[in-house]
Amino acid sequence: MKIQPSKKMALFVPAIFGDLKKHAQLQQQHGMELIDLSLGSPDIAPSETLRQKMAELTALSSSYGYTLTGIQMFNEAVCRYYERVNHVKLNPATEVVQTIGSQEGLVHLPVAFCDPGDIVLTTNPAYVAYDAGIHLAGAEPYYMPLTKENNYLPDLQAVPEEIAQQAKLLILNLPGNPVPAMPSIQYFEEVVAFAKKYNIIVLHDAAYSEFYFKGDAPISFLATPGAMEVGLEINSLSKSFSLAGTRIAYIVGNAKMIAIMKQLKSNLDFGIFEPIQQVAALALDNAEEVTAILRQTFSERHKTLMEGLTSIGWEVAPSDGGMFVWAKYPSSLNSVEFAFKAIEKTGVVMVPGTAFGTAGEGYMRLALVQPVEQLQKAVARLKSLAH
Ligand SMILES: Cc1ncc(COP(=O)(O)O)c(C=O)c1O
């Protein structure tokens, strides 16, 4: 039998992560001790309370049915969390939809709102799921560059008028991955005005909202006046609560948009395992305990890597949050060559900037997923890399 992928599959190219992993494993087999800073997968275990609760719930025979659009308890916990942390009041019945991790929500959302050929405004570089969703919907990305000059915030005024007129969706991510820029109320006000002017739906990915190292929490997009009329925020329990493997996230915001997402999802899946939803509700209700420890841990790591890389001549993008460091390395090699050379010579595994878009050339993304001592060791080893 001749097996042939659809033409669309040409748009879903394998990510570089697999190749990096293979190369790293090969070096490990040759005796290299690896320091893996590639994936943004939290290395801190979920709290004992959450793990106990999960064990208890999975033992119940009543836990195994379909949950369809999800249990009310989870949606209510999301609303309580949003009110406490972001000062945003939401209706659990109409303004929340659960997703199977935010990846699932991000990849499917453009299908709900975009027709083939519609333009989606996104950034270069950006988290890779945005492009996957845009391709799935048959829409066209328009990339807004993230530059040092604009403090790594997409410049909406630089979007050509005819592009803005055709755009259906705008995707933002602050604090961002791979570039950890932070949001501000002024910036989000500009986003709301732009969205209203051109009738564009805004999707703000707040996956790293709990990763901030100075002052108050980054503002939620939905806390901006007028934001509930134009958009949605997606957030996940993967990073903030170390629940990446249990796959649970949510989209909140405009009720009409949420209803459209629910309609789409009712055709795609039958809900998340109930113990996961209950554990997630417990995590959200006790968020402050968990996230305070998280911030303390990550802010020390952040400081270590930012200062360490600067001291060896790397140019790091300034930031006070996020789970990553975005840094220009001092070498004329392209970012893929440099990442592979770093694995071979130092055992430090980083993601080349171009994995997130062409504007990532010359940069590395380093995830803060190792203890401080390991990060210090990584910097010392990277210092030895010849220019
Ligand atoms: C910006 C951003 N959004 C969403 C996700 C997806 O996370 P999950 O599907 O685990 O919620 C990631 C994961 O790395 C991310 O970096």
Quick summary:
The chain has 14 helices and 13 strands.
Return the string of H and E elements.
HEHHEHEHEHEHEHEHEHHHEEHEEEH
Helix content: 40-55%
Strand percent estimate: 5-15%
Global shape: globular
At the first level of CATH, what is the class of the largest domain? Alpha Beta
Query: Pairing-aware structural class of the strands and helices?
Result: alpha/beta
The number of strands is: 13
Q: Order of strands across the biggest sheet?
A: 2-8-7-6-5-3-4
What is the C-alpha radius of gyration, as a whole number of Å? 21 Å
Largest sheet: 7 strands, mixed
Could you please say which CATH topology of the largest domain applies here? Aspartate Aminotransferase, domain 2
Secondary structure tally, helices? 14
Looking at CATH, the homologous superfamily of the largest domain is Type I PLP-dependent aspartate aminotransferase-like (Major domain)
Mean pLDDT metric: 96
Topology:
Blueprint: H1 17-29, E1 35-36, H2 48-58, H3 72-86, E2 96-99, H4 101-113, E3 119-124, H5 128-137, E4 140-145, H6 161-166, E5 167-173, H7 185-198, E6 201-205, H8 227-230, E7 231-236, H9 237-240, E8 249-253, H10 255-266, H11 274-285, H12 287-311, E9 315-316, E10 324-328, H13 335-346, E11 348-349, E12 351-352, E13 363-367, H14 372-383
Parallel strand pairs: 1-11, 3-4, 3-5, 5-6, 6-7
Antiparallel strand pairs: 2-8, 7-8, 9-10, 10-13, 12-13
Helix pairs in contact: 1-13, 2-11, 3-11, 4-5, 4-10, 12-14
Pyridoxal-5'-phosphate (PLP) binds at residues 40, 101-103, 127, 173, 177, 205, 207, 236, 238, 244, 249.
